[in-house]
Amino acid sequence: MARKATALDVARLARASRSAVSMVFNGRADGSVSKEAQERIWEAARQLEYSPNQIARSLRDQRSHVIGLVSNAAVTSAFDGAIIAGANALAERFGFLTLSTDTENDEHRTVGAVRTLLDRTVDGLLYVLSGLNSIAVPQGFHTVPSALAHCFPAHPTDQPIPAFIPDEVRGSATATRHLIELGHTRIAFLGGSFTTPAASWREQGFRQAMASAGLPVREDWVQYIGWNITTGHAAAMRVLDVADADRPSALIAGNDRAAAGMVLAAVSLGLRIPDDLSIVGYDDEFGIADQMVPALTTVALPQLRMGEEAMRSVLLRLGLDAGEAPDLPRLDGAPEVRMIPCALRARDSTAPPAA
Amino acid sequence: MARKATALDVARLARASRSAVSMVFNGRADGSVSKEAQERIWEAARQLEYSPNQIARSLRDQRSHVIGLVSNAAVTSAFDGAIIAGANALAERFGFLTLSTDTENDEHRTVGAVRTLLDRTVDGLLYVLSGLNSIAVPQGFHTVPSALAHCFPAHPTDQPIPAFIPDEVRGSATATRHLIELGHTRIAFLGGSFTTPAASWREQGFRQAMASAGLPVREDWVQYIGWNITTGHAAAMRVLDVADADRPSALIAGNDRAAAGMVLAAVSLGLRIPDDLSIVGYDDEFGIADQMVPALTTVALPQLRMGEEAMRSVLLRLGLDAGEAPDLPRLDGAPEVRMIPCALRARDSTAPPAA
DNA sequence: TTGAAAGCGGTACCAG
DNA sequence: CTGGTACCGCTTTCAA
Hints:
2 copies of one chain form a homodimer. Chain A is α/β, with parallel strands linked by helices. Chain A is 37% helix and 18% strand. Chain A has helices at 7-13, 18-25, 35-48, 54-61, 81-93, 108-119, 168-182, 197-212, 229-240, 256-268, 303-317, and strands spanning 66-71, 97-102, 124-135, 146-153, 163-166, 187-191, 222-224, 250-253, 278-280, 298-299, 330-331, 334-340, 344-345. A 7-stranded mixed sheet of chain A has the order 2-1-3-4-5-12-11, with helices on both faces. A 4-stranded parallel sheet of chain A has the order 7-6-8-9, with helices on both faces. In chain A, helix 1 (7-13) packs across helix 2. The longest helix of chain A is centred in the middle third of the chain and has 16 residues, at 197-212. Chain A starts with 6 loop residues before the first helix and ends in a 10-residue tail after the last strand. The interface between A and B is large, with 58 and 58 residues. Strand 2 of chain A pairs antiparallel with strand 2 of chain B.
């Protein structure tokens, strides 16, 4: 529990001045501090296990090397933690840490959270949402470089703020095209629900791909059924428990959990996957999509990338050389919102339809 | 982007002194600052949107009101984020924030992570592990009040450090007893793997409960099969795809995912759950256990509690009145390791065996 | 009741 | 090349 050594302690032990110690520790020593003095300082520092107090440094530099992170429930939420992980990883590479606050889905807490973070003089701010949605940019976000991950401003803001979201339309279109290329024509779209714009964007992608292929969309096969194993199971039962001729040959689910429920339903009806029925998920949820029996063909949500790009955009504006900002497509009517591609993961739940 | 107001700005605007401002903001004003001056100070603070710079305060007080959080992969990992959420929630209630670093499962990074945190003068430290295991207590943990969550010291340490883990033995025994009370006698234990001591503790609980009930354990029905949907599926196929008389009437899985795989296997064999077969999971993983078809009977891992109790033990040692430290059972031979009860969640995947 | 001053630890400027 | 000093913003003590 002994008090940590300070620069003064080191200076005394090394018979040098505080300034010399400071310079040595900031690489500014050469040409200002003699080789011998430097040697003595390093040695003393080692002995005392000295390392500079970052709080003091922050106060002095008016720069904390900390990025504040506001999330609604991302830490708690299953795979959305990956957004934060992506952001953290990049930050750490550049000597930054993140200070996070979770508002636990309580809108009222965001203002306070931002304030708390700002009082700690964070150098930048990130807003991370667990389910894709539009948000009101919290007060205070404009006072430091900041960005949004997995969310975007509900209303155009006077001070534009970069946002990074998945390219849902193209992701869904890719999945649909995958099925079409396998030879499917009877495709049902059993999407999630309107709790997130992602749902309708995915429907949009589905319709685009069908239209491009000149395939008709059966409207009673376009349904919004929720995001759960349970709801996926129930929906699949309705759609599949019919005469063979009336059955779709492929199902597109709103996410991997719903897809898992659909697999369960299909199996209980004696349908084999992918022989009798193809199923596509969404998210590429770790431990679900890759581990299902059969492993799910799905569309990967670019969680890590979102966190990383959002963080990069902040670091860049802080003057860090944090790599190239990639040239990403922009959301129609909101050029500050960049869309990150969603990759198709073709696995074992899709195959050509039975002849 | 205007510079934030300081106490001096407020003092000037309110025609008072810096000290007065400080006192007002620390509730130490009454009896030292005139009512009118206080009024003017509040008003000025409001106008300038003043709030004290916490970095400066930290430097001055030698107390940052920040708890450092070291995890191997907990942020990334699905439901283990709940440990952190529990810790954060409690911390926040007492005006603390957490500064987290993820070592991404790289042992070598822990030392550096702790150092980084300590340089920021965190008031305490938490080590959060994503899969229950023993660890080497990182250097530096003894310099501030600290605790372990979901892990415990591999070797007895000279400076004991509180650790909080789930009571796996009793949890598993409870699940087994639940099956026995339903009337099951032919119970297979298809546990995870030895990557974590939890696996053998759960076996131990299983055997205890069987023995207490005077039931024999069929050794070929005690298997370690991994933690995945896939491996659960495969194992269940082996155990279930036999003559009716040779089949267990209940399966205990290592976790909910493996249990899900077992459900899948059972359904594909035409077995109805719970009518023909009962299945018990472990973890109560959100979105899996509660959403499976049928909803899984399982044992809840006390993630939030672990985070909360670990944090509480730190706050308590920091002199905060953070509630009562509960009287929890201790691990044999390691009194510093407290075990938190795991509650049974009886749902729809268990029922009395078919007559 | 008020205000001036010291000091937390580090950095940077400037005179020696 | 070296060491003294001012300052970052806040709190606390002490003298007026």
